[in-house]
Amino acid sequence: MAKIRWPLVARRFHKWLALVVGVQVLAWSLTGFYMVAINISHIHGDHLVKTPAAQPFDLSQLVSPSQIVTAAPTASEISLTRRLNQAVWKAVSPDGPALFDAKTGEKLAPPNEAEIKRYAQALYTGDGDIISVRLLTKGLQETGGRKPPFWQVEFEGWNRPTLYLSAQTGELMAKRHFAWRGFDIAWMLHIMDYDERSDVNNLLLRTVTWLSFGMAVSGAWLLFWAFPRKRKKKKAVIKEQGV
Amino acid sequence: MSKFRLSPLMFRKIHKWVGLVLGLQFILWTLSGSMMALLDKDKVRTHGSHDMAAHGHVLPQGDYFDPAKLAEHGPVLGVNIVDLMGYPVYEVRTPRGVKLVDATDGTLVKVDPDTATYVAQMMLNAPVASVEPMARPNLETRDHSGPMWRVNFADEDNSTGYVSAQTGRFLELRNDYYRTWDFFWMLHNMDYANRASFNHPLIIFVAFGTLWLSITGFYLLFKSFNKNDFRWLRRRKKPVIRVIKEAA
To answer: Beta partners for B87?
Structure first.
């Protein structure tokens, strides 16, 4: 029986597995590098909006929450917050959030386009002007699981900075720009879910990951023969024998 | 002396040297990636704080404690009113932390082990083995802050619920699926101490090096196969005389 030549077996495993998974391994390396090299807070667009300074509320003139509970009888949470500089009670119910003037208890109408522009401009840190404002009734890939309707406010700039504001309250829901969109595509390629970009357990991924593991291990196996120790030894022996 | 050339030999050299230095991490990436793809995400990501709003109880009608009197707790930066075990509470945010106040009579509410157990069992209906206080978050609750209660369930998956000691809110539900997943996530993001960041210099350096491993490897694919390798595809029927060449 012929002796098994292990270097050849390892090499065959390595190159055939690499042939199958090569494109994906390259995609993993490229997208992985993109995802680790750019800071996640930049990806999230934290630099696009101002963080409001913590400012104490004047509690002396607030209407009682009992009035808000009566006006929003299905609310599960009520919070004291601000819209621009106006103190508001925000009630969260199964049918969405609603705002009430914290001093009068009066329900505030959903913001119109001009108000949305004002809120977005007040939030945005950049210099660019608003180039489009649209009320969307359907979610987009880049708004994920957020419940429509919402306002899409796009600002001037090569990276297309876009803010999404709630149609009911005018609150900021999401901030998107070029790097976020790039990350989303990188993530899609990384987890190989080309439809929803969210299923990390899909069969394709499970198969290709294990094949790549085999490819990597056979590659490590090959390293045992990749550095020519033997030749040096042979040479040494030859020298000793004086040939 | 030979000139420096971008030859297949050069690529092979880069490939094997980068493989020697960074290969272990490459193997760990494929292994941890395989394991994370294998672990069912619905068992790993149990209901946490994010689902809490959807499960929240309706706030009762009636008289609420005058919010103006909350000023005695210091400057108020924000107020949330939520239900805790059937009665409404004010979560009062002050510069010195969150105060929990009964929204009907204004008394301070303490989140005791019984409250923590009650809140945790709303998320997981299983017997509770023990409840322990924690002064600060651990690795499993690293996204949160402040003191909390650790509620240990006596169930198959070794589930643990975490409840904020400040607000009584449910924070996280962790089990052995999560713990296994999180171990591999640590191997994947190489943040061995905190497991949280994937933007640190070590991973950026290794990822950059591995990029070379992949690019040279991909190039070498085109150099490593010849016609004979694919003969089995074309000539199935006829017997094939194989010439096995030994690598020099």
So the answer is: B84
